[in-house]
Amino acid sequence: MIEWVSFGQGARPVPRPVPTPLVWAGAFAGALGLVALTNALVGTGRPVLVLTALSALAALLGVWARFSAAPGTALLCWLFLNAFAIPPAGTLTWAGSRDTAWLGCLLAAALVGTVLARVAHARAAYRRIGSPPAGTEPGDGVRDV
After folding, report:
1. Which residues cross the membrane (predicted)?
2. Is there a contact between 47 and 35 (Cβ–Cβ < 8 Å)?
3. ∠ at Cα 72 (78, 38), nearest 5°?
4. What is the pTM of this model?
5. Residue 20 to residues 49, 96, 103, 133: CA-CA distances in angstroms?
6. pLDDT digits (tens, 9 = 90+) for 66-122
7. What is the C-alpha to C-alpha distance for residues 54 and 49, in angstroms, rounded to an integer?
8. What's the burial of 38, exposed, middle or buried (CB within 10 Å: 0-12/13-18/19+)?
């Protein structure tokens, strides 16, 4: 006998993070595109604008990533920021406190995106599991906690 079951019922699993190499490929392509677009529109020498855009990209990528992808994402974004957004273009430099702050900002953005996604997924899963089944009322003994 065939039993019809609605696909909309039951607990849905928490979404799985995207594999780390795919996140890093997105960081590579996204950082390249953002730095190229910013350099074309406003020119080089505006690192704060590029840092803001790359931080937003790192946070966006962090939403779909694992925590272990955050350092690599931050490093890839920093490489494009340092190599192509500040003069002389195409040359990697290290200015101690500035580059440390930039790396910290990019890493924090990636981690904030990942944490926000994990909290949102956990809250949604809690609401799905914690809500009573259709047709029951609180206090009737079914799933009372």
Report:
1. 21-42, 48-67, 74-95, 101-120
2. no
3. 30
4. 0.79
5. 27, 28, 19, 37
6. 999 999 999 999 999 999 998 888 888 898 899 999 999 999 999 999 999 999 888
7. 9
8. buried
